[in-house]
Structures are given as structure tokens and as C-alpha cells.
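Next comes this protein:
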Amino acid sequence: MKNVNLKVGMFLQMRGLPQEAFNAPQSKVINAIDDLRKRAEVEFDKTMKLVKTSDLDLLVFPESCKVPDRYFNEIPEEDFEDLASVYEQIALKISREIGKAVIVGFEDCLDEGKCMITNAYANAHALDNETGLTHYDKHTMVERSPFDFEDYMDYGVCGYFPVIKLKGYKIGMTICYDCNHAPFSRIYGMQGVDLLINSSGQDLDFYKWYKYNKVRAIENDCFNLVVDGYIVDQKKQGAYALGYNPEGKELPCVGLKSGKQYLRQNNIYDWGEVYVFDLSKDKGGASVDTTLDQEETLCKYENLFVPVGNSAVLLKNAQKLKENLYVMPHQYIQDKKINNCHVVFCVVEGDDIFLPEKVLSLLYAKELSSVKDKRYVIVNRYGEVDKSFYQTKLSVLLKVRAMENYCAVLLESKNLNKCIQTTMNRGTQMVKPFQGKFGMDLNRTTGPEAIWKNKKGMSASWRKGFEWLVDQLNF
């Protein structure tokens, strides 16, 4: 069991107006924005006063949080040429005022209208062996990413994924959708962090973030905490804080203002509250995947059939590109149209499925570069699967491997065989076997090609930087 004696506060801060407010007349919108700014400043000052008298070690703000204008007004105009430095200065001032280390989220929209999102960490009272200032830039679901930098690969991974040192512990930070992609957390895990922190925005799918962040804790053997921003007047279930221990067990937290304890953190909704996770109180242990009993269903379209527990039948007719990587030409008819593709089988033995680098090195293998119209299936093989191990860890991890890679995943063992597919919006479907076979929908297995393309918040050109990160993980 990993012992981490840190007390971390997750600030569920008000972020902005609900979308319907912008349908009102312009004068009302202006008044609403002005009112929001005043409310946010009052909320901020009250909360910081409370935090100052608390015994927190670290206060975490959500993505693109609200910081009173006075902090920006105090900075010389010429300093704004280096916005990362400006954000660090503001975070440092907040840290100095409250006497705690802080992670503060900022949004930079000054570069040709393309917003870049940053987390600034500051500890105004850092000791010689502690981190005083650093920052992390969001990589995905953003208008401008570090992947856009021409010299991205020149700085080495540690330059973009700085490890924070606080009270003898190591901390890594990601922002919102970056938790959807394993490398951004795994780089910290391979640097031995004790705690990962994800600062997110609003309108998140709780069940996706539940699964992603539970798995990030498990695969990196560390604690993982999440804070979600909050839109004024949003539905109560729209914001939350989440916490997991290194075994993926959900952690309770306590409201700094209310003193109440919470466990099912998706029920948290009090904006302005700080939800405190005392990691020293964790006694270890795991918790069952809350989606364990997800109903198995048949796919609407079935265009590849795999014998339950016996994908080897298909692999006999596939071309072996390298160890554990196979390609099989395949033709299927859907809606009276003939489709030709190549099914890529990535075979992952046993617990290697818990190592993202093992999986990604197959999905992004250079040997696949000349293969056209690819569809991806991950085959995870075990001799026998322990029931408790499956219920607490393997079940949720296999779902995340399907979600994060937009592919199908097969679990094959002597006592347990499962098939998981991602949905069109990257949820999960448990596929029901029929007549001894799993019928897969290959339209939902386009893998990296579905992820790295030009669409809102993403760019096809970013794949080059992502593949470089995958290579770094496999050194």
C-alpha cells in the first residue's frame, strides 16, 4: 500500500454563464456577465480566506478557472509577451496570499484567436528540494496544442510533463480530455509520481471520467484526483470531484465549508465548495467497477465474427507483421455496399494490458503505415482470470482500452471471455455472443485514424507528436 501524507482541496468553482443566457438580449447578457464577474470575485475571496486558515497542502482550481481581474491588472503590460510567466506570477501571488501550494487553470486566447489552455503550479513557500513554479499545457480538445510547436520533440518529454515536488512527494498534472489518452498520464507514472491531478471543465460525461481516471490510477500505481468546473445554474449532476487510490478504489472527501463527507462524487454540486481529499487516511484496497453489470447486447451491424475465446482461428489466416501484430484482409457487405478493409489484431498477453506502452506500440507500429483501411482489435489473453481481479480492475481497464483507442477489445481466458466495443460517442458496449461467436461492428474500430483527424479540438497533424510520445514510453 502506498502511503501519501497530503491533504488536497479541489475547488469546485463557478466558471461561466449557462448557454441559454446568451440567447437573451445583448443588454441582459452584458449585465449577466458583469454580475457573474462580481459573484465570482466574492466567491473567490471568501473561499481563499477559508483555505488560508485550513491545513490543506495543495489547492486545485478547475480548467480555465475564474481569477479576479486585479491579479492581471497588477502585472506590467510588457510581461504579457510571455503568458506562461504571467500565469505563474498570478499563481505565485495566490499561493503567497493563502500560504498553500496551488494549481490554477488559465485560458490564453491571444494567439490569433486560437486558445491554449494551461495549468500553473506555484508554491510560494517551497523548500530547496520542492518545486516553486512550473506549468502544464493541455494537449487535446483545444484550439492550440503543444503538438503545434515545431520544436516539440526537441525539449524531451520532461519539459512538457514536469513533475511537481511537494513535501517529499511527486505530483503530475493533466487537463480535462488529456485523461482520455494514456500517454499523458503514463509519462508521469514512469517518472514515479505519487499523485496525478486532472483539472477539468464543465459538461463532462461522469461515467467516462469515472472509468478513465480510475484506470489512470491503476495503471500508474498512484493516487488520482479530478476536479470539474461548474457553470452557473447548471443541473446539479453537472459538476463533481473524483478521487482514487492506486488500486482504483473510490476515495471519500469532505467539504471544507460544510464539513460533510461525500463518496459518490457525481452527486457533488455546491459551487464555491472545496472538496478535501486526505490521502493519509486511505487504508488501501480496491472497489468494484460500477459498470461491471453493464448489459451485453448484440451489435446492430455485425461484419466480423470471432469465435468466443478463440481468435487464433482467424489469426491462422492473417499475416504476421511482427511479434503479436497481425493483419487480415476482410470484406463485408453493409447496406448493400461491399466494404474492403484490413483487420489489425494486436495480441497482448496477460497483465501487459495494464501497460499502455505495450498496447500503443502495436496500435501505432510503423509496420502498419502502408496498410490501408485498417480496423483494430485488441486481443488480451490470460490463462485464468481471478474473479475479484476482474471485478475491480480488469473489467474497467478493458473498457478504457476500447474507449481511448476507438477499437474492439477481446478478453480470452479459460474461465472468462468478453468482447467490448466503443460506441459512436466513445462510450462502451459489452457485446453479447450468439451461436458461439462475437459479432463485431467494424465501423466502430477505426482506431487512431478516428482520433487523429481534423475536427473540433483535434488535428491530424498532432498524431506525429503523439507517436513520438509513444516511442518515448517504450525506451
Notes: Residues 105 and 119 are 4 Å apart (CA to CA). The first strand starts at residue 7 and ends at 11.
